[in-house]
């Protein structure tokens, strides 16, 4: 026993051990996905407009740096929806309803912002919490259907994306305080309900991003350090074993969906309660019967971040970064759609990079550590015994 | 130069980091039954997969009738006349027997299926070898024994002359096993050559001519079965002497720990109930074995007992407490420990580390958590204690991912967890399934130790040796009912087999009187 411990201590930082860790595999697969996606994206740009491909590509890679405030600002909602998708995914639930939860959160936040009269300093906090509540309700419904009637959460939450969006659009259009029909958008949110700005010049970035990052870290702690996280991951990995261990599977499904919904709802609140660059104005919502894209982008963010809260923080920054950079690429004649294609390609690659990653890890171990290859893959029984004998 | 039909010479097959087969030579004579013996992970299946074309060896060659052949895939194997019955049957569940047999070699005229032609050949083969089948039955409706006959007919239909059987008896009743061994002998007498993978020594003694033993990927030797004995073979296989008899004193049953009355459980697969009005008692200090062929309601009985499935009638009392409607967790707290039938499905979270799995039943107790935060130090300390005490071996100790551990050590982890937890009753469902002799010996000792510690033990097993050797009382389950109670000291395996196959049954009255 003692010997074994010492060995594992000694090797803790060797390449062999790092390449074997799950953290490495998640990180390297994300990097591999990004690299392949970018190469492919560049090829697409070459085809679309060979002359300015290098310039355009340069914008995509570095354009976001000059608008760092806005990168963070646009990262906020997709970070939250990413967490909403990723968190549920750890439980084995595919929360495709982040869009609806996000939209609901936005509406609840707007409602409190416009209709409630609260003191400055408290108003925006209550509005944010209202947004969370809205998302929670929209997460709770698919959750309870899944738990009690075993209705697939994918189906219910897709339907609730539509139901939520149409409800919100209807409610907003019929509310003359919130809606300016001549401009077919919502009014500016009262100052007291706006999230305080971080004061970065020329950008909308506000305290929302800080809350979002903190929430990501909190989720990480919940998942890794608490009994709730232990149950949640156990259920996600093996539902039958969770039942066998007497975990309350149904309660956990509902709870997970409520939390996921709340996260997405917060994303909606963070976005809509943002002050915009022009003094006094704020973000607005246009009720045009379109499902919020930020919900679906959350799926991409969660996928690239391997459903790990910390990974999701970085992947949301990255996706926001290339989105901002991409919007500059039209300066050299690229359509905005091209950047969507590049992002889609990155996501596509991230799905199978997971597979390629295992090969990459082996490759590194084999050639950098002088054939010090991994031990049991098949028939671990025998290998263990052989190792024992060798000792 | 003897008349070998297949020679596998110096076969070496490596997987990353491990030699699954290390310089193994196996010679198969024409017309013999050749057993391949070894523990789990000894490389038997790998070697057969090489012969069947599923793997390519790094070194070594295969010869047929003295000529070197390349087997790149199962189609090549088939062309060479090599057929295989896999441990898990490869049948299309919703096809008929006939359709399964001709699958891949369908006789046709211009693309149109000629079923009549096929049917005649299949019926002829089945009559010649006494392999009773109904060509029009759908696979999912027929028994496991008949499914196996379909697999055998598949090989015969393809005119294979080298037949590989991968642990064919695991799913059969004693009577079916005898029948199968007889058929294998018959094939051999006709000049076909049989390779028979098993770790059951009795079957080797009964049916095989020669036996090749592998251990940890290495070739240990080939013996003539007639000149050898069980003890020698098991020593070759394990590398040390093995005690087949389970050492135990007579049981001293005390108070009733578990009392099940009139339990009825619906089936998920058909309209009948899976468990019909079953009553039984388990006392402290005895091992009661629930025997039966797979699929006769034992699994459902245990699921209902542990709270994983709902029962529609009856009651359960554990240590005087009614737990009929208790949740899984409440039952566990009330003193029920459960070694589940399927360790991968229920017993373990394979992606979790060993220490995380060690607290799977107890992570919520104050010992391991405070205000919802897991006490990692306590978990580590506790799992190191269990690992030490029960000799659970793994690559990196408590932080090993359980998936990477061997089956035997995974099972040891479950057993240590369930035994160390407070309990009055230990339910062990097929605790030795798929394990090697050494691990089986260990687990049997643990079960007896629990009994001697004054706990009740309910063992559910399909293995006849285990049923006869370990238990103090045998209850036989057939089609959801308990059809007989036997005393292992006064009964024979044959008698047990008759009960298991439904050929014999006690009336309810007799059982009640006996109990």
TrEMBL record, chain A:
Its main location: membrane. It is a multi-pass membrane protein. This is Simple sugar transport system permease protein. It is found in: Cell membrane. The chain crosses the membrane at residues 21-48, 68-89, 96-116, 122-141, 148-168, 205-223, 253-273, 338-360. InterPro entries: ABC_transp_permease. Keywords: Cell membrane, Membrane, Sugar transport, Transmembrane, Transmembrane helix, Transport.
TrEMBL record, chain B:
It comes from Fusibacter tunisiensis. Pfam families: ABC_tran. This is Simple sugar transport system ATP-binding protein. Keywords: ATP-binding, Nucleotide-binding, Sugar transport, Transport. Gene3D superfamilies: P-loop containing nucleotide triphosphate hydrolases. The keyword Kinase does not apply. The lineage of its organism: Bacteria, Bacillati, Bacillota, Clostridia, Eubacteriales. The keyword Transmembrane helix does not apply. One of its GO terms (molecular function) is ATP binding. It comes from the Bacteria. InterPro entries: AAA+_ATPase, ABC_carbohydrate_import_ATPase, ABC_transporter-like_ATP-bd, ABC_transporter-like_CS, P-loop_NTPase. Residues 6-241, 258-504 form the ABC transporter domain. CDD domains: ABC_Carb_Monos_I (cd03216), ABC_Carb_Monos_II (cd03215).
């Amino acid at each position: 026993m003692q010997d074994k411990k010492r060995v594992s201590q000694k090797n803790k930082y060797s390449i062999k051990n790092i390449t074997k860790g799950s953290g490495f595999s998640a990180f390297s697969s994300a990097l591999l996905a990004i690299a392949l996606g970018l190469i492919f994206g560049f090829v697409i740009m070459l085809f679309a407009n060979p002359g300015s491909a290098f310039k355009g590509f340069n914008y995509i890679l570095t354009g976001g740096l000059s608008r760092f405030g806005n990168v963070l600002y646009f990262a906020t909602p997709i970070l939250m929806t990413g967490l909403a998708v990723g968190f549920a995914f750890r439980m084995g639930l595919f929360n495709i309803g982040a869009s609806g939860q996000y939209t609901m959160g936005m509406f609840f936040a707007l409602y409190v912002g416009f209709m409630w009269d609260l003191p400055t300093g408290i108003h925006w906090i209550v509005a944010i919490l209202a947004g969370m509540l809205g998302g929670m309700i929209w997460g709770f419904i698919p959750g309870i259907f899944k738990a009690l009637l075993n209705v697939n959460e994918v189906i219910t939450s897709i339907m609730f994306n539509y139901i939520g969006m149409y409800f919100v659009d209807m409610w907003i259009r019929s509310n003359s305080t919130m809606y300016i029909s001549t401009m077919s958008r919502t009014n500016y949110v009262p100052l007291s309900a706006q999230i305080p700005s971080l004061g970065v010049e020329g950008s909308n970035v506000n305290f929302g991003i800080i809350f979002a990052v903190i929430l990501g870290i909190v989720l990480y702690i919940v998942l890794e350090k608490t009994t709730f996280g232990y149950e949640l991951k156990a259920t996600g990995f093996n539902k039958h074993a969770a039942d066998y261990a007497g975990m309350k599977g149904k309660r956990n499904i509902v709870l997970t969906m409520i939390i996921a919904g709340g996260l997405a709802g917060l994303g909606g609140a963070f976005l809509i309660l943002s002050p915009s660059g022009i003094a006094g104005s704020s973000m607005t919502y246009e009720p045009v019967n379109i499902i919020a894209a930020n919900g679906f982008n959350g799926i991409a963010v969660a996928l690239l971040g391997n459903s790990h809260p910390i990974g999701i923080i970085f992947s949301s920054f990255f996706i926001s970064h290339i989105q901002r950079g991409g919007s500059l690429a039209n300066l050299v004649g690229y359509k905005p759609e091209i950047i969507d294609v590049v992002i889609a390609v990155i996501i596509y690659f991230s799905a199978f990079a997971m597979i390629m990653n295992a090969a990459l890890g082996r490759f590194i171990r084999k050639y950098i550590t002088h054939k010090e290859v991994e031990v049991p893959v098949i028939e671990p029984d025998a290998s263990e015994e052989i190792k024992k004998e060798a000792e | 130069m003897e008349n070998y039909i297949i020679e596998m010479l110096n076969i070496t097959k490596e997987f990353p980091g491990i030699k699954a087969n290390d310089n193994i030579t196996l010679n198969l004579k024409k017309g013999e039954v050749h057993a391949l013996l070894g523990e789990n992970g000894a490389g038997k299946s790998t070697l057969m997969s090489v012969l069947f074309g599923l793997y390519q060896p790094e070194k070594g060659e295969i010869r047929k009738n003295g000529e070197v052949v390349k087997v790149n895939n199962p189609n090549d194997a088939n062309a060479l006349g090599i057929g295989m019955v896999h441990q898990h049957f490869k049948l299309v569940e919703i096809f008929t027997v006939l359709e399964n047999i001709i699958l891949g070699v369908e006789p046709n005229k211009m693309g149109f299926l000629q079923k009549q032609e096929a049917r005649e050949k299949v019926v002829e083969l089945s009559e010649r070898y006494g392999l009773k089948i109904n060509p029009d039955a759908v696979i999912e409706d027929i028994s496991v024994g008949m499914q196996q006959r379909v697999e055998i007919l598949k090989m015969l239909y393809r005119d294979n002359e080298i037949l590989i059987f991968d642990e064919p008896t695991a799913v059969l009743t004693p009577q079916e096993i005898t029948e199968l061994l007889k058929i294998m002998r018959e094939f051999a007498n006709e000049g076909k050559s049989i390779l028979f993978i098993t770790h059951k020594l009795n079957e080797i003694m009964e049916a095989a001519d020669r036996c090749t033993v592998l251990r940890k990927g290495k070739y240990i030797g080939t013996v003539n079965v007639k000149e050898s004995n069980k003890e020698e073979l098991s020593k070759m296989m394990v590398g040390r002497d093995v005690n087949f008899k389970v050492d135990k004193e007579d049981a001293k049953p005390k108070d009733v720990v578990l009392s099940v009355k009139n339990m009825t459980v619906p089936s998920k697969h058909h309209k009948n109930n899976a468990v019909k009005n079953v009553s039984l008692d388990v006392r402290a200090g005895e091992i009661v074995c629930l025997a039966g062929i797979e699929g006769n309601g034992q699994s459902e009985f245990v699921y209902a007992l542990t709270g994983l499935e709902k029962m529609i009638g009856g009651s359960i009392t554990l240590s005087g407490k009614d737990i009929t409607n208790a949740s899984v967790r409440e039952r566990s707290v009330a003193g029920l420990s459960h070694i589940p039938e399927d360790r991968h499905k229920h017993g373990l979270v394979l992606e979790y580390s060993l220490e995380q799995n060690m607290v799977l039943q107890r992570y919520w107790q104050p010992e391991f958590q405070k205000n919802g935060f897991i006490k990692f130090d306590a978990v580590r300390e506790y799992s190191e204690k269990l690992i030490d005490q029960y000799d659970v071996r793994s690559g990196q100790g408590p932080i090993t991912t359980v998936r990477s551990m061997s089956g035997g050590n995974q099972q040891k982890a479950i057993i240590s967890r369930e035994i160390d937890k407070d309990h009055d009753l230990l339910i062990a469902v097929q605790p030795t399934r798929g394990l090697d002799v050494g691990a089986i010996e260990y687990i049997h000792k643990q079960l007896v130790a629990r009994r001697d510690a004054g706990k009740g033990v309910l063992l559910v097993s399909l293995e006849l040796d285990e049923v006869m050797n370990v238990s103090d009382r045998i209850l036989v389950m057939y089609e959801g009912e308990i059809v007989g109670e036997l005393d292992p000291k006064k009964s024979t395996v044959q008698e047990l087999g008759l009960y298991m196959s439904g050929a014999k049954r006690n009336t309810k009255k007799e059982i009640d009187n006996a109990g």
